[in-house]
Design a protein that fits this description.
about 35% strand, globular, Lipocalin, 36 strands
């Protein structure tokens, strides 16, 4: 009798499970707490309210326009219902209600003159229980009170007049705030520094190159293995870039994935992707902690997508190369040494992977946005030069085999005279991949399994959202732009939006949102400026 009852109960439970399985999971509140979502830099979330079946119903819920123009690369951070984002071009930090975009506070630092390497960009903040941390263009680290935006403390990382600057999103972990440094292409030497979160005291500094050498900048946020107390960071190219006669040897630890003791800042291991680099193939895309199956054994690994066009998968403990993927961009004449006459090669030094990647542990795949372009280099030039049209794509790569699963091409970026820094990385859920198109300003949602396009939204410039606070000089520049078009009898350019930002998703009040920044990359005579777009399913 007991056995029959037990079997009946099991059958009933199974039937009930089958009946309930197709129902959507109820969303609970969930933050996007740091630059890469978690300390692994995975950009993968466990939220299921938005899925492959209903993503086509996503609608714009609210947007916030800055009234200023710049390259919008900052990944928003969401903690306890508040969204924190940095707006270009002056490192303004804005705290918004994550459910409706209402401004809670904003802070604009007074910046000192700085010899910038690669443009006035900022990639976001770090947040802990007490503070919001922002690294500024003039090489400072500033802690703001989370509730009010008041300055709690600030630290000078390095002298900006010498070419040091900050463009990375800091990392806050275990009472530490970690920042790298930008400026490698103007000759500064790279390093990673840890500060005490409560008062800004400098605790340690690790140099990626000897003090006398240049390059090796670290301008993307590291990953952290909490159990191992280890930081994993990517380092930049050596300097000078093309002509290596002034810097013979391997140029350690440039172009490398490095593992550091997070508490002491000491080197545990390194893996150099390109020794004696003359092509600007630095390891800039942030490392991501993944699981990889090697010879039938599952291992803790760290993956990094290179400018070389390969995904590198390394043993997390020793830095041993476990696997190198198939190429996700075109490779031709790679590693040809520059000559007096010059050589063409691909990928270009600004191509390959620069943006953050996303990791889907359920599928065992990473998703990589990358640029295809040729470059030209000769010894007479201090830098490589892009040649020909650039295109961008998103690719799914199987971490356990290194094979490309699917690839989707975006419209061409055109010929970019100044090179590329395409930082629009993907966002992964269990079923979806969200990614913005730099060339068109469209936000796409793909099926993570096969790459089918399931939803698309065209961002626009020139349509203000909430929070626009247009200053006098912005209004004057817009007026002069309009007069110029009229006097020269030129048609006013259509407002154009581009996405250089990486999307995020979060849950507030039981509703899952998707957010991405779009920037008006050139002035058109309007005053809306850069805009944060936020989407949700209809209620």
């Amino acid at each position: 009798m007991r056995r029959r009852t037990a079997r009946a109960l099991l059958a009933c439970a199974a039937a009930l499970g089958c009946m309930l399985a197709p129902l959507p999971l109820k969303a609970v509140d969930g933050d996007w707490p740091s630059f890469g979502y978690d300390y692994a830099n995975s950009r993968h979330v466990p939220f299921h309210q938005i899925d492959a079946h209903n993503v086509s119903s996503l609608r714009l819920t609210w947007k916030f326009s800055s009234g200023t123009y710049g390259k919008f690369e900052a990944t928003p951070v969401v903690r306890d219902g508040v969204l924190y984002v940095v707006m270009p071009p002056d490192d303004t930090v804005v705290a918004l209600d994550a459910a409706n975009g209402q401004v809670k506070w904003r802070y604009t630092p007074v910046l000192s003159p700085v010899k910038l390497c690669c443009g006035p960009v900022n990639r976001g903040v770090a947040v802990d229980r007490e503070h919001v941390y922002v690294a500024t263009l003039d090489a400072r680290l500033i802690a703001l009170e989370r509730r009010t935006g008041a300055v709690a403390w600030e630290a000078t990382v390095a002298p900006p007049a010498e070419g040091y600057s900050e463009t990375m999103a800091p990392l806050a972990w275990n009472g530490l705030v970690v920042v790298g440094i930008s400026g490698g292409d103007v000759g500064i030497g790279g390093f990673l520094t840890a500060y005490a979160a409560h008062d800004g005291k400098r605790l340690w500094r690790w140099y990626s190159v000897p003090h006398a050498n240049g390059g090796g900048a670290i301008w993307m946020t590291p990953a952290v293995d909490k159990r191992r107390a280890t930081l994993y960071a990517g380092t930049g190219n050596p300097f000078p870039m093309v002509d290596d006669r002034q810097r013979p040897g391997a140029n350690l630890y440039s172009d490398s994935i490095v593992a550091l003791d997070a508490r002491r800042g000491t080197l545990r291991w390194y893996f150099q992707e390109v020794a004696d680099d003359q092509w600007n193939y630095d390891a800039t895309s942030p490392p991501v902690l993944v699981d990889a199956v090697v010879h039938g054994r599952r291992m803790d690994a760290v993956a990094q997508a290179g400018k070389t066009g390969w995904l590198y998968v390394l043993d997390r403990d020793r830095g041993r190369l476990l696997r190198r993927s198939e190429a996700f961009v075109h490779q031709h004449n790679m590693f040809a040494r520059p000559t007096e006459q010059g050589v063409y090669a691909s990928p270009a030094g600004g191509a390959g992977a620069i943006a953050p990647i996303a990791w889907n542990p359920r599928l065992g795949r990473v998703f990589v946005t990358a640029v295809d372009q040729i470059h030209f280099a000769r010894l007479a030039d201090p830098y490589w030069r892009p040649a020909g049209e650039a295109t961008q794509s998103v690719t799914a790569i199987d971490v356990n085999s290194g094979r490309l699963v699917w690839r989707r091409q975006f419209p061409p970026l055109g010929t970019i005279d100044g090179g590329l820094n395409s930082t629009n990385g993907p966002l992964a859920t269990d079923e979806l991949v969200f990614v913005g198109e730099e060339s068109t300003g469209r936000l796409d949602a793909f099926d993570a399994r096969n790459g089918d396009l399931l939803w698309q939204f065209q961002t626009t410039a020139g349509e203000p959202g909430a929070g626009v606070d247009v200053g006098f000089w912005t209004k004057l520049r817009d007026l002069l732009a309009s007069w110029k078009h009229a006097l020269l009898r030129q048609p006013r350019p259509a407002p154009a939006s581009h996405i250089h930002d990486s999307p995020i998703t979060y849950v507030v009040g039981g509703t899952q949102y998707v957010a991405v920044g779009g920037d008006a990359f050139y002035r058109t005579g309007d005053s809306s400026g850069d805009t944060l777009y936020v989407f949700a399913l209809p209620r």
